[in-house]
Structures are given as structure tokens and as C-alpha cells.
Amino acid sequence: MSLAAQIGRYSGLVLVTAVALGVMLANGWGWDPTAPREEPIRTPSLDELPTMPVSAQHLQLERVEVIDRYSGMIKPWERFQIGFDTAGRVLELGINEQGQPLDDGDPVRAGQVLAKLDQRHLEARQREAAAMLKRAKDEFDRAEELKQVNPNAISDARYLSRETDFEIASAQKELADKFLADATLRSPIDGVLSKRLINVGEQVLPQQAAFEVIQAEPMLFTVGVPESRIRAFIERQRDVDHRRASGADDTFSVQVQLVGHDARGRRWEPLTGAVRTISQTADDVSGMFQVEAELNNKDGLLRAGQIGVGQFVVAVVDGYRLPATAAVIRNEQLVLFYMKESSDSRDEPAPVTRTSQGSPAMEVRPVEAGKKYRAAIHVLEPGKYLEQGEEIVLLDLPLAARNVITRGQHRLVEGGSVIVVPTDADAAP
What we know:
- The protein is of the alpha+beta class.
- It has 4 domains: 1-33; 52-59 and 319-427, conserved putative lor/sdh protein from methanococcus maripaludis s2 fold, CATH 2.40.420; 69-74 and 216-316, Elongation Factor Tu (Ef-tu), domain 3 (Beta Barrel); 81-214, CATH 2.40.50.100.
- 25% of the residues lie in helices and 37% in strands.
- The protein has helices at 3-28, 120-149, 156-182, 227-245, 424-427, and strands at 52-58, 62-83, 88-93, 107-108, 113-117, 184-186, 191-196, 203-204, 209-225, 253-258, 271-278, 289-295, 307-323, 328-330, 333-341, 351-356, 359-364, 372-379, 385-388, 391-394, 403-407, 417-420.
- The strands form 4 sheets. It has a 6-stranded mixed β-sheet with strand order 14-15-18-22-1-21, with no helix packed on it.
- Strand 19 (385-388) and strand 20 (391-394) form a beta hairpin.
- Helix 2 (120-149) runs antiparallel to helix 3 (156-182).
- The radius of gyration is 44 Å and the shape is elongated.
- The protein starts with a helix and ends with a helix.
- Residues 344-360 have low confidence and may be disordered.
């Protein structure tokens, strides 16, 4: 084969190979020479976006209570374990208001008889001590008369012996009276008999627990506060004490919501109390600081052991309240959308001047339903807001951002057009 023929053959093979590679690459890249040409994606301008309906809330500065919530337990004001100071056999129990022997849950009064021991041997010992005292006193009186008539009629040793016998008999009589009194157990307070630990006929020992009596009015609501929050409680308590020392009527208040519902499925009415004590040291087991609040129990409906959630007012601050759902996350930041005038010549809401207690104060005019505005973003910086359950309390808010969007904010973009629509609350008379 000639050289020219070989070159022609190789050139044909190269051309075929190049065409095949072109087809393979085109298929690999998804190129279709017959497909219509696509236009590049274009981001619409703000003016081209549809006007979004939203709801807004006009925020005003107010005094806001900062709440800490902790679950806790109802406990009695005081708890007493009562027992006899002497040994003996239980003769009888005290009687309740219905004339029945005392039992768990019965109310008792201070000084009321709870139980008695068999007192026959104690009564006999008391009579014996009384007789010994009478004889010793008579002999001492005769010795004293002789001493007064004639100092030499009785020796000093005999006189001293009569005096000593009288003192010993007096002490024995007092001891017998005490043993007899100790055989009757009485309630130290007005309260409720929470536990009866003895029965008639049982033999008891000295200081053996026979009854538990609790003081049920008032009651205590006890919670455990972690180390990270206990200082807020201490500062609040000191502030309240300072105000009260200055004559102000202030309390470290707490509202307790008991767990559970009534027969109709409704939650129990919240109870209002005041903090009484804050423990000096943390509990060895839980590591929490114990805080006790006083609760009124005049109606007797509270029982030790009930569970509740306490809302403690740990501070009172000036701030702006709004629903927590108004805040959204954009670019890993917590933000609020607020409304400003849509006119190019007025980027900010026109402030109006109001007077508060004689001093001028700047305020922003509330938005108008049916009017178009522009959506703007306010970033919530840590330390300048508080999360309070279903609300957020803003400690600092620019004047322009007082009209906060509370519904429809999740689909907004900064600078987008919005229109205010009335809510059900706005339509209510």
C-alpha cells in the first residue's frame, strides 16, 4: 500500500474517532442539540413580589414580671412526732368531734388529749409521795417552831435533817406529779392528726412515736432551684425586704398551679403565695437550693404531698411583650419582622409625640388595616430579650420596630410588600 493511501486511511479513522468522542461527551453532559435553548434563571425584584397579608402588633413599653417556673410539692408548715415521756400500756385514745377515737385526718386543738396510759400505779405513787411530803412538812414545821422558841431545844444537825427530808419529799412529789401528767399525751398545736401509730392495749416505750401532728394552716410550697438561678431569687428577696423596710407593700410572689383537673376537666384555680425562706446550702442529694413559699389553706383543701408548678416573679423589668411565635430564624439568627412605610420618601414610620406623666415621650403610630407597608428585619441579640413561656420580653427595641408582624412572617423577605389584615380580635366589639 502506498504512503498516500496509508495516510488517507489513518485520517479517516481519526475523523471517525473524533466524531464518536464528541457524541459521547455530548450525551454525558446532557446536551441535546434538538432541545430549545433555556433562558437563565432571574431573581424577581422586590416590586415584582406579591403583597403578603400579615397581622401586626403595636408594642408599647410596660412593666413586665420576669417568671421562673419550677415544679414542687405541698408540705405542712410544721410537722411534730409526738410520744409519751414514760413507759406504759395505752388505756384509751382521745375523742374527735364526732365522738369517735382519734384517727388519721382528724383536726386537733392545742392541749387536746390524744391518748392516755394506764395510770393506776402512777396515781398510787403520787398519793404515796403526797403522804411522805405531808409527814416531812409536819416534822419540819415542828422543828422550826422549836428553833424559834428555844434555839437550844433542837440541834442544828437534827434541824438540818428535818429540812432535808422536807426538800426530798417535795422533789419526790413533783416527780410523781410529772409521771402522772406524762401518762396523758396532748397536742402541742392546732393542726391535723396525720398519723396514728398506736392502738389501745399496746405497750409503749418512752419517746416512742405515737402520733404525727401537722400544722396545715398555712401550708408550704417547696421547690428545688439550681445553682445557676438561685442568685436571682436571693436578689429578688433582698429587693423585696428593702422595699418593705421603706414602707412599701411588696412581696416575693409566686403563683402555684396544682397538677390535675376537676370532674369537668378544668384546671384547678391557681394559688397565690409569697416566698418565705431560701436555704443557705444546697441539698446533699439533689444539689438544689430549697425555696419555700407560704400558701393560704384556710379552706383546708390542700394536702401535704400534692404536686404543682410554681411561677416565681424573680424580677420586674421595663420591656415589650409579644408572642414567642413572632420570632423566626434567618441566616442562623433569631429575628423579628416589623413594618415600615412603603413610600420611598418615608422609610421609617412617622413618630408622634405623646406625653407620659408630664414628660415628652416618642412613640410610633400603629399600622392601619388595608394599608401597604414594607417588611424590615430586627435581629434579636442575646441578653436583650427574655423567653417567658409563650411570650418574648424585649428589653431593648428601636423606635422604628414597634409595629411587629406576628402572623405571616415565615414567608416574608426583607423589603417585601405587606398589607395588614384585621384579626378576629380586631373585629371583636
